[in-house]
């Protein structure tokens, strides 16, 4: 599986919602960008308790989903931006159904691995409220499993827009990102499924612990 990276997007923490700050507004970068354990350099996360770090180093929100949101929200300019949902990688024809926890991809000279689905937060909804009636976007993400996902970085490297994103190793075929999200984040998993997730070595440790707690 090989897809083309249409844009690599990064951001800086800026004022957002009064006293809050956020780096959700990711903008395309030109040229070659270095990739380290914490992701692209530089790329900020305002609240490191819930964003960023080695288990959430690089975020991909499928460009395919932008059409879904246009149908729901209307033709707003924000959806023309490749990093509209805080995504670092702009890629088409690749969704949560197509990839699995533990899939490994070559991105430029870096090696990255899918570590977890993205759990949506209120900042997505607040960002879109500025330009549209956001119609309960977080709830819609949860119900539709249009969540996106995170990669960890296994080998540092560098990449640029136009490079391929190529899967070189498939993770757990039983656990697509979509299934993992539905089971753990959307709350639809059985106790057996949650126990299985808790033992999945390539799932981020915090989510393995969450799965175990929910299975009890």
* Average pLDDT, all residues: 92
CATH architecture: Beta Barrel
Helix content: 10-25%
Strand order, main sheet: write it out. 1-14-10-11-12-8
Q: What is the distance, rounded to the nearest whole angstrom, between the alpha carbons of the first and last residues?
A: 37 Å
Detail the poorly predicted runs: none
How many domains would you count in the coordinates?
Answer: 1
Strand content: 15-25%
Radius of gyration: 16 Å
Please give the structural blueprint:
Blueprint: E1 2-4, E2 7-10, E3 14-15, E4 21-22, E5 27-28, E6 33-36, E7 39-41, E8 58-60, H1 65-73, E9 89-90, E10 104-107, E11 110-117, H2 122-129, H3 137-144, E12 149-155, E13 157-159, E14 164-169, H4 177-185, H5 191-198, H6 205-215
Helix pairs in contact: 5-6
GO molecular function: catalytic activity; molybdenum ion binding; pyridoxal phosphate binding
Organism: Erythrobacter insulae
Domain MOSC: 26-168
Would you give an account of this structure?
Helices cover 25% and strands 25% of the residues. The model has no long low-confidence stretch (mean pLDDT 92). By secondary structure, it is an alpha+beta fold. It has six helices and 14 strands. A six-stranded antiparallel β-sheet has the order 1-14-10-11-12-8. A three-stranded antiparallel β-sheet has the order 5-2-9, with no helix packed on it. This is MOSC domain-containing protein. GO terms for molecular function: catalytic activity; molybdenum ion binding; pyridoxal phosphate binding.
